[in-house]
Amino acid sequence: GTAALIWNEIIREKVTNLIMNQSKEQRILNFVLQNAVRGDPCSVVDTIDKYCSQKEWAMNVGNEKGQILDKTVEEVNPSVALELGTYCGYSAVRISRLLKAGARLLTVEFNPEFATIAKQMIEFAGVQDKVKLLQGPSGEIIPQLKKKYEVDTLDFVFLDHWKDKYTPDTILLQECNLLRKGSVLLADNVIFPGAPDFLNYVRKSPHFQCTNYPSHLEYMQVEDAMEKAVFLG
Q1: What is the Cβ-side half-sphere exposure of residue 135, based on CA atoms within 13 angstroms?
Q2: Is residue 189 flagged as an active site residue?
Q3: Are strands 179-187 and 223-231 parallel, antiparallel or unpaired?
Q4: 163 classed as catalytic
Q5: Fold type of domain 61-231
Q6: Residue 38: what pLDDT?
Q7: Which of 58, 68, 89, 228 is the most buried (most CB within 10 A)?
Q8: What percent of the chain has pLDDT over 90?
């Protein structure tokens, strides 16, 4: 079933990496540089979706869940947003294209190779003025947001990094007083690969009001969902 599909993708990716002597992420970037319109974030997003649906699967949020992300960003209309897990920069570009003038997105990526790719993706899309990429572990960067990056509170947080980090990072955001009444958290992949402890935490907490958006895993017909958690203070 699903596991076999993804396992096949992983093996195919590793073989391609060996033959081409470059990573899948590098191939995604190259495809964008060659096929998308420079300075057009929508074109960059569409081009990544095209590559990942036709050529190689990748863990971007994808277009189906991307529309849930878009709708949430438009509803919140954030001045300051945080993304945990930049990967290739797909959702950073997707979010930033909806931000009002003067708004900013801080995006955190642990993997230095992914951060390098994402930086180029963000610049090619022309959204580098709105997006600040922070490379390092989320657990170290979150406590620095107030002092080092002049964040008062976050209006919107998109969680799309390691699933076992969702809960500790949410708790850290609360402990660092980075959430205000009405701050919105949106978490990807809560069904597949799944974040059961996070769902358990936010749904049982009196501080959050939750909504579940059933969907499918990016570029596949596998059940997945996104969870929206509004901070009540």
Answers
A1: 12
A2: yes
A3: antiparallel
A4: yes
A5: Rossmann fold (3.40.50)
A6: 98
A7: 89
A8: 78
pLDDT at 20: 67
Instruction: List the beta strands (DSSP E) in the chain.
Output: 80-84, 104-109, 131-135, 154-159, 179-187, 208-216, 223-231
Name which of 59, 27, 40 is nearest 124 in CA terms: 40
Nearest to 87 by CA among 131, 65, 119: 119
The H-or-E segment that residue 167 falls in is helix 166-175
Q: Is 164 a catalytic residue?
A: no
Residues at the binding site for substrate are: 163, 189, 218
Q: Burial of 204 by CB count in 10 Å (0-12 exposed, 13-18 middle, 19+ buried)? A: exposed
Q: At what angle do helices 41-54 and 112-125 cross, to 10 degrees?
A: 130
Q: What is the pLDDT of residues 195-215, one digit of tens each?
A: 999 999 999 999 999 999 998
Bigger pLDDT: 60 or 188?
188
Active site residue 74: no
Over 90: is that where the pLDDT of 109 sits?
Answer: yes
Catalytic residue among 189, 224, 227, 228: 189
Q: Please give the backbone phi and psi of residue 119, each rounded to the nearest 5 degrees, phi first.
A: -60, -45
Give residue limits of the domains in the chain. Answer: 61-231
Q: Has 160 been annotated as catalytic?
A: yes
For residue 221, pLDDT beyond 80: no
Q: What is the mean pLDDT of the chain?
A: 93
The predicted pLDDT at position 17 comes to 66
Annotated binding site for Mg(2+): 160, 188-189
